[in-house]
Amino acid sequence: MTVGQLLVAAFGLSRNGERELNERWIRMSFRIGGLLPHSLLMVSIQRLGEVDLVCRAVEKELVLGPPRDGEMDLRPNYLAVLSEWWIGSAYAICYTLKDRKILSDPEFLRLANDLRMIRVQIEKYEVPSDRDLDEPLRFSPTQLRADEKEAPIYTYDKNDPLKSHIPRTGLSHRFSYMWEVMDVRADAARWYEHRIGC
């Protein structure tokens, strides 16, 4: 099989495995996409849904057949690729809907803000809303290992032109990709997973 054939098969298997959710994505694409006439918003939402279904299919596979000790399993890596693309695309759709005042209910605005915070970290390599910081932050990009006395620390300074933030990432209990997000305004960190809003 070719790469293209494998991709088509992967998306087809994912749709067949989540028929009801696939229908929900299609209905949502018509309902929300129709709010911006003469655009491809409907198509963008359907594509977003298709990637969501592939992510969920990989998550299910990981639950049913987790990586074995010592095995080089690249499924989590490609799940991260798809999940990060999904976050960026979902953010762009929400930004358009919010910016043009097409949707403005509180639940939608909360979702749009959550997507914004994740997206800033993974696509801009910054702490979200860092302009609100009064002083530099100290971070550790990793959990403390058994052989470490203290975790490696780096300083994030919003005024440094080479500033960069490395968020912690992982897989949730249902093997959904997740990111730890620093919420400057709340002065706290929160974990978000790909199934945000679900």
Walkthrough of the structure:
- With 198 residues, this protein is mainly alpha-helical.
- The chain has one domain (3-193).
- Helices cover 49% and strands 11% of the residues.
- The strands form two sheets. A three-stranded antiparallel sheet has the order 3-4-5. Strands 1-2 form a two-stranded antiparallel ribbon.
- Helix 1 (3-17) packs across helix 3 (41-64), helix 3 packs antiparallel against helix 4 (75-99) and helix 4 (75-99) crosses helix 5.
- The longest helix is centred in the middle third of the chain and has 25 residues, at 75-99.
- The chain is flat.
- The two termini are 34 Å apart.
> Shape from CA axes?
flat
Global Rg = 19 Å
Instruction: Report mean pLDDT, rounded to a whole number.
Output: 91
Share of residues in strands: 5-15%
Number of discrete domains? 1
Kindly state the percentage of residues in helix: 40-55%
Topology, number of strands: 5
**Count of helical regions:** 5
H/E series: HHHHHEEEEE
Order the strands across the largest sheet as they lie in space: 3-4-5
Largest sheet: 3 strands, antiparallel
Overall structural class, as computed from helix and strand content, comes to mainly alpha
Distance between the termini: 34 Å
pLDDT below 50 for ≥5 consecutive residues: which ranges? none
